[in-house]
Design brief:
By secondary structure, this protein is of the alpha/beta class. Helix content is 47%, strand content 10%. The chain contains 21 helices and eleven strands. The protein has a six-stranded mixed beta sheet with strand order 1-2-11-10-8-9, with helices on both faces. Helix 11 crosses helix 12. The longest helix has 23 residues, at 108-130. The termini are far apart. The mean pLDDT is 97. The structure holds 6-O-phosphono-beta-D-fructofuranose.
Length: 537
Amino acid sequence: MTADAIWAALDTHRAATAGRPILSLFDDPGRAADFTARLPTAEGDLLIDYSKTAIDAAARGLLLDLIAAAGVAARRDAMLAGEPVNETEGRAVLHTLLRGGAAAGVRADWAADVATTRARLTAFADAVRSGAFAGAGGAFTDVVNIGIGGSDLGPAMAVPALAPYVDGPRAHFVSNVDGAHVADVLRPLDPCRTLAVIVSKTFTTVETMANAAAVRDWLAAGGVAEPAAQMAAVSSAAHRAADWGIPADRVFGFGDYVGGRYSVWGPVGLTLMMAIGPAAFGRFLDGGRDMDRHFAAAPPAGNLPMLLAATGLWHTQVCGYPTRAVLPYDQRLARLPAYLQQLEMESNGKGVAMDGAPLARPSAAVVWGEPGTNAQHAFMQAVHQGTQVVPVEILIARRGHEPHLAHQHRMLAANALAQAEALMRGRSFETARAMLAARGVATADLDRQARHRVFPGNRPSVVIAYPMLTPYMLGVLLALCEHRVFVEGAVLGLNSFDQWGVELGKELALSLEPMLAGADDPARDGSTRALAAWLGG
Ligand code: F6P
């Protein structure tokens, strides 16, 4: 069957089964086991339970057929071998190389370059952690990572995720061009013991350059005679870092085959490496590499990134649900939804296929979320009873890092499972009515009150469960998410590795700055001119 024919078959199957309760699929006693993918890892099994979705054996078969018909395996192999699969920019896509997993065919000089840079990063991180490289006031107590987008979100998510492993300097992150961000981050810090890392692949991003200048001024004002002596840079544009006075031995580059949102595994992860140490950072890379190997070799029916992508394709492109909520029942993954927003929406939020033709199906879902259980006391009301169906992805560890609070981890897990169960099971009008009647609600008011307590149910969720949130497991999980995005993008036939959609706003912001300083531009619309005049006045 062609991909078009498979999409049509999926639509037909969806239409035929849309009214069937997900719960009824559990009439098959093998449902849970059959629709849970399990991957043995170096730290125990990783589970993806997608049994509480409407995907049945026929749908799964069609989704896997679709992945095959779209040529995902060949495209994956091309990516891993370093072919220029980022076709609109003519670039290879080799973040996998940063994890040490050079596949056959990858240029040897690139692999050597990655290894050399990793050794330099390790030496630098060790020097900072030991105090061998220190600030004007002694060993660095704090590191400020200055970057935005992919030069921020990876380490900003991973440092709190791995808090139990942090034994180096405290890490802080400044991204927003809003001066409030840099001001608030710097206020409690000692300039003489703070290291600033400017992270910008291009070293031209205006937000980052503005914040870097603010930090340099703060260091100088705080008594650091030579601010550049307390700065390092992560950039592919070493000459621009040199213009800033940062010596080459403190500049860490990477090739254009690593996209910003895929870059936490290399020099962009420097702040993370300083926080948790090179050995733990190595475990993080090991986890990513093990997932790469699985993705490269496992047959589609047992391939976790492919199966997770299948759930995404089903919910977004077949069922037409426009958003997906990511709920880490893991407080330390609080920034994961923000990280995934860039990973998924900057990668797959496109309007045209690789050949420029408009996409026939919706592109990336709007990804959003917050840690459970906080989400339950905020927006989960709408997910349970609102009129839009929101597929939910729940992440939960089997064990926490706080053995003395194991009872709280049980409460956390119970809440995670309760959400998934409640979304699927719902509560009927009859049940709600009987419940209220038993509580003595007046008969005249029973129907009205019961309607407010009905849960439609039949709402899908996927549970991703892992042994413990260690550096290794974080690597496994992030690589799983990356490859899932790759599979979805490949099936949709779009380029997951460019981001032209961020350009127009950047250009317009630059041309608007003079208007905020008093100039007028009659060629612009009345709203923009009036607001610029008011804000700049
Ligand atoms: O937002 C667009 C983008 O290009 C992202 O893809 C990237 O991660 C971010 O800007 C930062 O870019 P740079 O590292 O060059 O400062």
